[in-house]
Amino acid sequence: MLLSELKDFQSGVISSLNFDVGFSRRLGEMGFSRGSRVKRICASPFGSPILFEALDGNVAVRKCDAERIEVTL
Questions:
Q1: Could you tell me the pTM of the whole model?
Q2: What is the C-alpha to C-alpha distance for residues 65 and 68, in angstroms, rounded to an integer?
Q3: Helix, coil or strand: residue 44
Q4: Quick one: CA dihedral 30, 68, 18, 71, positive or negative?
Q5: pLDDT of residue 49
Q6: Phi, psi of 38 (to 5 degrees)
């Protein structure tokens, strides 16, 4: 399942990041690394960005980037 497919207030564990090493590292610093649990809070009215809760903080991720992150429920 893709991160972008989570419903509001649904959480999942990140299983794969399909980015280059630099961008994956940057996402990891914000709590988006393999094995991390993230929870979708809501999306903007036009669907992008999407707000997620990770590492006790909120992070907005573009929908096109969320479509490249795989999660398991």
A1: 0.88
A2: 5
A3: coil
A4: positive
A5: 96
A6: -125, 150
